[in-house]
Amino acid sequence: MPTTATVATRTDASRMDDPNWWRQASVYQIYPRSFADSNGDGIGDLNGITAKVPYLETLGIDAVWLSPFYPSALADGGYDVDDYRNVDPRLGSLEDFDRMAHALHAAGIKLIVDIVPNHSSDRHEWFREALAAPKGSAARDRYIFRDGLGENGDLPPSDWESVFGGPAWERITEPDGTPGQWYMHIFAREQPDFNWDNPEVRDDFLKTLRFWSDRGVDGFRIDVAHALTKNLEDTLPSTADLEAQGEALYLEGRHPYWDRDDVHDIYAQWRKVFNEYNPPRTAVAEAWVHADRRARYASPEGLGQAFNFDLLQADFDAAQFRGTITKNLAEADASGASSTWVFSNHDVVRHATRYGLPAAADSAGGIMAGQAGKQWLLTGGRQQDVDVELGLRRARAASLLMFALPGSAYLYQGEELGLQEVGCEIADSERQDPSFFRNKGVEIGRDGCRVPLPWTTAGSSFGFGAGGSHLPQPEWFAGSSVEAQEAKEGSTLALYRTALALRGELQAAETLEWLDTGRDDVLAFRRPNGWTCITNFGTEPAGLPDGEVLVSSSPLEAGTLPGSATAWLR
Ligand code: BGC
User: Fold this and answer.
1) Ligand 1, closest atom to CA 345?
2) CATH architecture of residue range(s) 510-569
3) How far apart are the C-alpha atoms of 298 and 499, rounded to whole Å?
4) If you count Cβ atoms within 10 Å of the first and of the last residue's Cβ in the chain, which end, N or C, has fewer?
5) What spacing in Å lies between the alpha carbon of 453 and ligand 1's midpoint?
6) 37 lines ligand 1 (CB under 6 A)
7) 143 has which bridge partners?
8) Is the distance from the beta carbon of residue 223 to the nearest atom of ligand 1 less than 6 Å?
9) CA dist., res. 131 & res. 119, Å (int)
């Protein structure tokens, strides 16, 4: 396996030009509307990010991944894109983007942007053209339009449900005012799916990838990478027909729209574009697919890397962690990619909260499943049942373990503050997530992890900006703020800074060796350079392996590792 030896200076050309920079990178996800607001309009923006580059530099990350910042009506938090080659005016301009990219690069931080290829927004120029054009026209062929069923075509072409709930088809009104065809949308109705059989669609995305690569973007995160190609025969199977086929439908790549084999032809073409650049542009697939099919997305002839959400979906449990880590390292090794690890992102309940939920929590009320749609359902539970202290303690232990693993670690803004999910503090009337509305409130959706960050203990929107905050911040944000944590020894922010700096220095070949701990609830592994990580998933204190203790997620007790804690030694 290739190794990534970390060089001393972050901005060294040898490091910035290293084609393998991504293999063991620490990547920090910014949800731009909720990071920092430079103009006081309550919405985070690109200049806000630029102003926080010193913070990112001190945090010790290698790259920033920006969730969508494109013009959008925000029907799905920006994943409904109006124009792929522009910046939402509320977030800034292309010049602001260039300034931000330059500031990040000057600090030795790479820049990854989100690409949303499965669907545009319904305000995209092409979709407006499609609505204005007649049935069967070239403009309609860029999307997936179908006649409805029933005598008057007033039934949807199939009974498929969208991921956010409700039907996956929406009926349009034809230009002459009559009820017309239906278009497909796997997500919200404002997110019509593209027709990837259409060469114009393919060419346009190549243009978009080059547009951002030419502006200095180092890599791309590909949204729902497993959904682009479709097989829509004249008669569509019903949901019951599909369910009856069980797992084989997915394993054999026969689902009409999820994870079809031919999606990889698209990524092979994209790879050629990525390789036109030096260093080659990188890509990571968001593909919620069967673990056995994930490697295809991570192939060096394709996107190169794929998110592995297995650890994110595991309980805080030694056996589950060990099994998941072992399997994923083997998988990454076989595909030539490096592994990816992630506990939190903009779609799921923050891990400091998940780990504080009772083991058998159900999703009946309160704090929700983190993502809509059956396949993405995570542990739910009621907010009043969350053990905040335990959740944070475990989250710190889990993150420290993740930072010691071979491969890329993806962090989500606010986890370095140990932020909890914001739950019922957001009133229904203030919610934004389409999954809340389309599920009629059964799942409260993903707003709770998207609340603007607290930077200061007091002041308007806790230092997020000079105005308000587009989602309400709870009072307890004061104690979690950057300012509060900078003043506090042993804070989660201090832990992340120490761990990320050490991770940069200690990084070794992409392998690990499990150590025998003599206990089922204690995991320990060693990297090839003697860097050792031990995690106590239990409650009884555990003895430490030999070596000098470098950092621990909770204070050691009489030379032993307490429960729900991780330590690094060398
Ligand atoms: C993104 C979500 C988004 C969906 C539709 C994803 O998986 O991460 O935030 O709602 O794609 O674009």
Assistant:
1) 8
2) Sandwich (2.60)
3) 27
4) N
5) 21
6) no
7) 194
8) yes
9) 15
**CA dist., res. 260 & res. 276, Å (int):** 27
DSSP 23-80: TT-EEEEE-GGGT--SSSSSS--HHHHHHTHHHHHHHT-SEEEEPP-SS---TTTT-S
In contact, 144 and 169? CB cutoff 8 Å: no
Candidates 3.30.1840.10, 1.10.10.10, 3.90.1150.10, 3.90.400.10; CATH matching 125-184: 3.90.400.10
286 pocket-lining for ligand 1 (C-beta < 6 Å): yes
Buried b (16+ CB within 10 A) or exposed e, 89-123: ebbbeeebbebbbebbbebbbbbbbbbbbbbbbbb
Distance CA 519, CA 211 (A): 53
Task: Kindly state if the Cβ of 114 falls inside 6 Å of ligand 1.
Answer: no
Q: Which residues pair with 221 in a beta bridge?
A: 114, 284
Atom of ligand 1 nearest to the CA of 288: 7
What is d(CA 321, CA 328) in angstroms, rounded to the nearest whole number?
Answer: 11
- Please indicate whether the domains covering 125-184 and 510-569 agree at the CATH topology level: no
**Overall average pLDDT of the 171-198 stretch:** 97
| Distance from the alpha carbon of residue 151 to the mean position of ligand 1, in angstroms | 35
Distance from the alpha carbon of residue 223 to the mean position of ligand 1, in angstroms = 6
CB of 224 shorter than 6 A to ligand 1: yes
79 lines ligand 1 (CB under 6 A): yes
Q: d(Cα 569, Cα 551) in Å, to the nearest integer?
A: 7
Distance 513 CA to ligand 1 centre (A): 35
The mean pLDDT value of the chain amounts to: 92
Ligand 1 center to 484 CA (angstroms) = 32
Amino acid identity of 464?
A: F
Query: Which tens digit of pLDDT belongs to each residue from 509-542?
Result: 999 999 999 999 999 999 999 999 999 999 999 9
Q: Is any atom of ligand 1 closer than 6 Å to the C-beta of 116?
A: yes
Which residue ranges make up each domain of the chain? 4-119+198-350+389-498, 125-184, 510-569
pTM score of the predicted model: 0.95
pLDDT at 377 over 70: no
Classified by CATH at the fold level, domain 4-119+198-350+389-498 comes out as: TIM Barrel (3.20.20)
Q: Residue with the nearest Cα to atom 1 of ligand 1? A: 223
